[in-house]
Please model this.
Amino acid sequence: MNQDSTRFATDSALSRRHFLQQASLASAVVASLPLERVAHAGAGNGPLKLALVGGGGRGSGAANQALRTEANVKLVAMAELFPDIARATLNNLKNQHPEKVDVPEERLFMGFEGYKQAIAACDVVILATPCTFRPLMFEEAVRQGKHVFMEKPVAVDAPGVRRVLAAAAEAKRKNLKVGVGLQRRHKPGYQETVKRVQDGALGQIMYARTFWNMGTARAMRPRDPAWNELEYQLHNQFYFAWQCGDIHLDMGLHNIDVINWIKGMYPVRALGVGGAEVRRGKEAGCLYDHFSIEYEYADGTRLFAQNRQIPGCFNYVAEAAHGTLGSVEMLNDRNIFNITGPNAWKYELEKPLVNPYQQEHNDLFNAIVQDLPYNEAERGALSSMTAIMGRMAGYSGKKIEWDEALQSERLMNKPITSLQDPAPVQPDENGVYPLPVPGRYEAI
Model:
């Protein structure tokens, strides 16, 4: 692997420009697909037709928030793999929004191709499946000319990121509105704090630190004897890196995106460590339980990013930056945003308190109804790529350069088209799944 990357040292925009050049070429492929129709939602008097693809916890939450916006919205279609999840989600949404949920049996689409039919039935689609499926579903929504809200991460590997960037460019050409579930961007405390830092409150930023250190985030669902191996893994998406991208992408992305936001750029390289100290053995899934990654930006600024999911340890989820005039600490869950130094400042909570999960949908649907420019897909893809590059560094133990990471053809999994397909990873005779071994793993 070529480690010589001095060409990045003086041009902080080069990596992003190269990335977008590649996306521009790829967008021609998306543009060549048959155009069915471009949504002109909000132009008439009828409701915006909403579809939900992926009925798990985040999908249910996102649909609930979409239906709570001031826009005239009705849920008319849904796509899911598992009938029990689909019906539980629909019942929950009907109880909360009895007049806004109209999904008869003929618009409840099951199976791996159901998303195409759900998208065809709507003006706006929520994409909330495991993120490994996000790129092809986003491509399809753009091809059909539909507005999109998609959960983060937007991809789990570099090929997926390139597909999202290409579709994002095509969405912009079609004037489609796209939201991405990086809700810190919609939280007033972050917005005000980032603006002050960008305006020079810390002086010159020297380094930043991010943390998503916590115990096990979600309980693992026990095996059902009726499930095959793929169904078991699909019911436990956050325990299998091929679906969620591992914890550095799944959770650390939120933190990393804040620093990219502050910097107004993306790192040019990454190196670090990761592993599974506690999360290993039978029924432990297939992902690491800790990462510690150092990112370098083209101006020399470093970001030190920690992620950990180990019970019984000190928990801390935050973003921090340190400059020549002071420092900033941002704690999302506690609504704490403090700047120290000569420009000391403390954020006073807005009243009423803004829910950023709701606000991101308010902003998206307002843009749809008012026909305002709105496309978060590019920055969602670039920050997702940042975290993917960090995971590559942790898995391999190698220094990873941005352009090498971006051009990688390594897929986290082969395409899956049926519940009868083999699962992307298989347990050994003891029920233990293989993990990447630093020093041996080929990230690129």
